[in-house]
Please model this.
Amino acid sequence: MKNKLTILVVVLLAILMMSVASYSGIAADDEPISPMVSTVAFQPFMWFDFYIEDPGNNVELVIDEFPGTVFRYTQDWLFDILIATDADGEKPIILEATGPIRNVYLADLNGDGLPEFCVTTMFGSGFIDERIYVYDYYSEKKYELSDRFNHHFRLLMKDGELLATQRVAAYGEPIKTGRLALIDDELVIIDPDRQNHQGTVLYQPSSRPATVTLKNSADKEIASAETDENGSYTILVPTASAGESYTLVVTKPGYLSYTIKNFTINEGEDIEEIDVSQLAGDINGDGAVNSIDLTYLLSEFNRAPQQYPYADINGDGLVNSVDLTYLLAGFNKGAVVSSQ
Model:
């Protein structure tokens, strides 16, 4: 009798487990596998590089960050292909290449703890250029660094860091070599002789970015950047000039300019917040907000701007009381010039 009860309990438990699995839509032994994000920063590494050694065909890769997934490089009749195989089957990692893949490196460029596939490939027919593609397997995003007919780009690894070179000719000497980075969803080569500095420009909600320009003592532009939707920007400053005096200029369509002279940036310091929210309304760009700008705005009032596009100060497609309020806040003001 005791044995029969034991068997009955086991059967009931099995039925219960099957019911739970059926209810959730997941088989008991087929639960989804999530990526493994380590608390230790992902270290870049080379999968293969034809510039160093021919890896052959059908090269496979398994990494801890994507358990249950096998990545494979294979050569097709026309194209080289990267394929990912997981519980859902095979799917190509589309890189929009029309030529051979020359190397593949893995590096965490977006800081999410998971690696992206960083690829040098040949592109085109007749005229062939080298370009870099980066594929974020986890979020399925693709990025490209190319400049067809002008420059060639190639990946390499040095001292544990993923670098990229830029050449005028495929086999010429590099005109730039630096760390490959992803900034504001764009691939860039970070010059080792430059350092990143972040800052913020405060202005009213607007679809148009502001431009931040850094000039040296000879009034020559040495760096510039555009703000994102939050007013934030990253500017690359030559390290050799860190601590020197600059002129920082903030410009934005429909706004007065804001200039800071004797501006210094020291290593490890970010740039202080710059508020231009009271400088809106310079519709004709003459460096002042006055009756002329007010006349232009009123001529476009309650419609999409036709003759004076910057009358739509916030760039929402309509000139209305919101834009008028912005202009009146800056009325009778001129461009700001200050010293740090």
Notes: The CA atoms of residues 80 and 100 lie 5 Å apart. The radius of gyration is 28 Å. Confidence is low (pLDDT under 50) at residues 1-32.
